[in-house]
Design goal:
The chain is α/β, with parallel strands linked by helices. It has six helices and 26 strands. It binds adenosine monophosphate (AMP) and magnesium ion.
């Protein structure tokens, strides 16, 4: 008797799969957080300056506040103004005030002469040249105008943006919420990394790698632990994940083996959008929704689960937290060696991309077997190899997703 092993799920293309996922991933609500916690978060509001910056005309250098029209003649030094203090008196014709960078320009003065171009003796200052009006004055509102929108919604907050928030007097800011992502490992063979390997067992690496990937993608990971290949136990933990998180990731149990139970569970409790993708590594990757929650059944093989995360889960997590750019930068690289495409699947090959003699070149990280986690170690790119039958020769150009920093010619 011939037993049918074929999957009942139609094969979808990688592009269609990504579109199906992004169509279901909604931008989450926003929350108010302290700016010290805001690095990498996405702004959910526009930020308006409530005053000018600088708030007053200020000295841009250490020197003397003078009246330009007085020319190069010696002037009487009236006083000294340091940053943080305002001087009540005004500079009048024939006088000057010693002034430090950042101090408010006193009344009457219209320029500052750098200390390096002056000599002061017995209370009189002599200038090396005629000052020009406006020299070395940092005008009120020159950097930021009151009422100006300094940051727009959707900005990914970096160091400079956080500095700007502080500049305009904001200590708290409205940002999109991070998706909470629950991660579950399935498999009778799994033990915790600190447990002894009984016969037939392997250590659970996927949960740790996926928890880290979630964090890297800006999500808030929670662990649901590991579960045996038991339908009731797996369903109970997936349901717990659905209660506690926006997204649930499982690893293992999505192929057509007798102990692959994830698809039947998801079909029963939710809607499966795809159960097979023309994708290598990670053909059995499964995507379902349960109410407004997303569930990804990732393959068990360590490389497959991480590369499938990269292809399908990460863009969703980015969209949910308000990112406008949900995808990794896609760049064109030159192959350093020939590559054989898969006949019928888009393959994401792990590679190292470096800047070499004026172009970006890519070298595969070695054997691409989906169990070989080492093929991901050191990889900074995933070569996007469309299905085909023609060998891609060395020197051919190909698209790559940049997942890490580009390496320069000198190895830095
Ligand atoms: P499965 O998809 O459940 O058939 O698993 C495919 C392969 O991935 C098997 O060799 C599993 O032992 C392995 N595998 C499954 N889950 C994990 C995990 N959490 N960590 C490491 N390897 C795993
Ligand atoms: Mg399994």
């Amino acid at each position: 008797m011939v037993r049918m092993q074929a999957s009942p799920y139609p094969m979808v293309s990688v592009e269609d799969a990504i579109e199906l996922v992004l169509a279901r991933a909604r931008v989450l609500g926003s929350q108010n957080i302290d700016i010290t916690e805001a690095l990498g978060r996405v702004l959910a509001e526009g930020v308006i300056a409530v005053d000018d910056m600088p708030p007053f005309d200020a000295a841009a250098v250490d020197g003397y506040a003078v009246i330009g029209a007085d020319g190069a003649q010696p002037r009487q030094v009236l006083s000294e103004i340091t940053a943080g203090f305002a001087e009540e008196r005004s500079v009048e014709s024939g006088t000057a005030m010693r002034i430090m960078t950042g101090a408010p320009l006193p009344g009457g003065a219209d320029s500052v002469v750098m200390v390096e171009q002056t000599t002061e003796t017995d209370g009189m200052v002599t200038l090396a040249s005629r000052p020009r009006q406006g020299d070395n004055v940092h005008r009120r509102g020159q950097d930021v105008r009151v009422g100006q929108e300094v940051l727009t919604p959707g900005t990914v907050l970096g160091a400079a943006d956080i500095g700007l928030l502080a500049t305009v007097g904001r200590t708290r800011v409205q940002v999109y919420r991070r998706p909470v992502v629950a991660v579950l490992s399935t498999g009778d063979e799994l033990v915790e990394p600190d447990q002894a390997l009984r016969p037939g067992a392997i250590r659970d690496s996927n949960r740790y790698a996926l928890l880290a990937s979630v964090r890297e993608a800006g999500g808030e990971p929670i662990s649901l632990g590991q579960v045996r290949d038991d339908e009731a136990e797996q369903e109970a933990l997936i349901r717990e994940g659905l209660r506690r998180a926006d997204v649930v990731l499982t690893s293992g149990g999505v192929s057509v083996g007798s102990r692959d139970l994830i698809k039947p569970i998801l079909r029963r409790i939710g809607t499966i959008l795809f159960g097979r993708v023309a994708f290598k590594p990670g053909k059995p990757t499964t995507f379902a929704t349960v109410d407004d929650r997303l569930v990804f059944g990732l393959p068990g093989f360590p490389v497959s689960s991480l590369v499938s995360f990269e292809a399908f889960v990460r863009p969703a997590l980015r969209k949910m937290q308000g990112h406008r750019r949900v995808h990794r930068p896609r760049i064109r690289v030159v192959l350093e060696h020939p590559v054989t495409p898969s006949a019928d699947r888009t393959e994401l090959q792990r590679a190292v991309v470096r800047w070499h003699e004026g172009r970006l070149v890519a070298r595969s990280t070695g054997v691409q077997r989906s169990s070989r986690l080492l093929s991901l170690v050191g990889a900074n790119a995933l070569l996007w190899i469309p299905p085909g039958t023609e060998l891609l020769p060395a020197g051919a150009g190909i698209d790559a997703l940049l997942v890490g920093e580009i390496i320069s010619d000198n190895g830095a």
